[in-house]
Amino acid sequence: MTIEVRPASVFEDVRAVLGPKSPNANVCWCLSYRIPSRLNNELRGPARGEYVAELCRAEPPPGVLAYDGDEPVGWAAVAPRADTSFARNRKIPHVDDLPVWSLWCVRVRPGHRKQGISHALIDGAVEFARAHGAPVVEAYPLDNGDARVDLTMAYAGLRKNFERAGFVHVADTTSVLAGHPRVLMRLDLR
């Protein structure tokens, strides 16, 4: 298996990884940290997918997709922190004034997990951010040690996976997800 990571500019491929089975469902579509809370609450059903379709047509696209051949098998959200709610998040500190990019969601489709795709997604998201001029990439993964994590809440990633990609712990946060603390990790691209 050869995994290729590409910009998430093809909406149908993003839909295959993030979209709901029912078009009227109110799934996340990885919008909760990307857009203001009010807009996130107002977008219902198909409007959520339509919003993501617009993001896929924008430059830069909203993240990266992992492909096994032509099949999209994973997603990572990455964008300038200033364009996300992390810019205003009180639970996740800012350690300096660099225009960092945030990497906050890593998702691998069922049937494709435990094959290294999340590692390829993290690496691909870093390269995407680097290509768009990011000086630093931040992530806010779960610090779960060896404890199991509910797969629905593992989207933030796991500390050990970011360490493997060269990220370093720079700060603790007061954010907790699925009973696990989140930590602020960074990879300096300068």
What's the main sheet like? 7 strands, mixed
Helicity level:
10-25%
Please tally the β strands and state the result.
7
pLDDT below 50 for ≥5 consecutive residues: which ranges? none
Order of helices and strands: EHHHEEEHEHEE
Strand order of the largest sheet: 1-2-3-4-5-7-6
Mean pLDDT level: 95
Approximately how much beta-strand content do the residues carry?
25-35%
The geometry reads as globular
Given helix and strand content, the structural type is alpha+beta
Number of contiguous helices? 5
Distance between the termini: 32 Å
Rg calculated over all Cα atoms: 16 Å
Question: In summary, what is this structure?
Answer:
The chain is α+β, with helices and mostly antiparallel strands and 190 residues long. The protein is built from 5 helices and 7 strands; from the N terminus they run βαααβββαβαββ. The chain has helices at 11-18, 37-42, 46-57, 117-131, 159-164; strands at residues 3-7, 63-68, 71-80, 101-108, 136-139, 168-177, 180-188.
Provide the descriptors you would attach to this structure in a database record.
5 helices; 7 strands; globular; single chain; alpha+beta; seven-stranded mixed beta sheet; 190 residues
Explain the layout of strands and helices.
Layout: E1 3-7, H1 11-18, H2 37-42, H3 46-57, E2 63-68, E3 71-80, E4 101-108, H4 117-131, E5 136-139, H5 159-164, E6 168-177, E7 180-188
Parallel strand pairs: 4-5
Antiparallel strand pairs: 1-2, 2-3, 3-4, 5-7, 6-7
Structural features, described:
The chain is of the alpha+beta class. The protein is built from five helices and seven strands; from the N terminus they run βαααβββαβαββ. Strand 4, helix 4 and strand 5 form a beta-alpha-beta unit. Helix 1 crosses helix 3. The mean pLDDT is 95.
